[in-house]
Structures are given as C-alpha cells and as structure tokens.
Amino acid sequence: MKEFKYVITDKEGIHARPAGALVKAAASFPCSVTIAKDGKAVDAKRIFGVMGLGVKCGEEITVCTDGENEEAASAAIEEFLKANL
After folding, report:
1. Which of 32, 48, 57, 83 is most buried, by the most CB atoms less than 10 A from its CB?
2. Which among 42, 44, 52, 41 is positioned nearest to 74, based on CA atoms?
3. What are phi and psi of 2, to 5 degrees?
4. Could you tell me if 61 and 55 are in contact, meaning their C-beta atoms sit under 8 angstroms apart?
C-alpha cells in the first residue's frame, strides 16, 4: 500500500471538472485508489464519492493506492494533483 498527503491549492477546491479528470485517472489503474479527508474515505474511481468529500482550498487529503501497479498509480495521481489542484 502506498499513501501520500496533499493540500489542495485550487481556490475552488475539488470541483466538477478536475474531479471528473481525477476519477478518470484513478480508473485507469487496476489497484484500489481511495481519497480520505477528516476520517471519511471514498473510492477515487467514483465521482459522487470524490465530490461528496467537499474538499476546499487549503484542506489536506490522503490518497492511498493498494494492489497491482500501486506505485505507478500513486505517482500518477500525485502528479495529477500537483498539475490540476
């Protein structure tokens, strides 16, 4: 299992467009990908889960990948977050 923390810097937080792209990126890997905030964890491959976290600018999320290709998935998700959120 790989895990990393990231602080959202987008002034709008995780909103619809980047959330959709994040879900698409997570879904491209066979491993499980979860995003957690304030003790609530959701499947990063489900748009309603990601949007349901209500992540705002300045809030920290924890991303966990577990399973096949977890290293690649973790690196790709981290790069996506840095570039888009």
Report:
1. 32
2. 44
3. -110, 145
4. yes
Query: Tokens at residue 54, please?
Result: 């209500």
Catalytic residue among 2, 10, 15, 21: 15
Q: Return per-residue pLDDT of the chain as tens, 85 residues.
A: 999 999 999 999 999 899 999 999 999 999 999 999 999 999 999 999 999 999 999 999 999 999 999 999 999 999 999 998 9
pTM of the predicted model, to two decimals? 0.88
Q: What is the DSSP letter of 64?
A: E
Is residue 41 a contact partner of residue 59, using CB atoms and an 8 Å limit? no
Q: Which residues pair with 56 in a beta bridge?
A: none
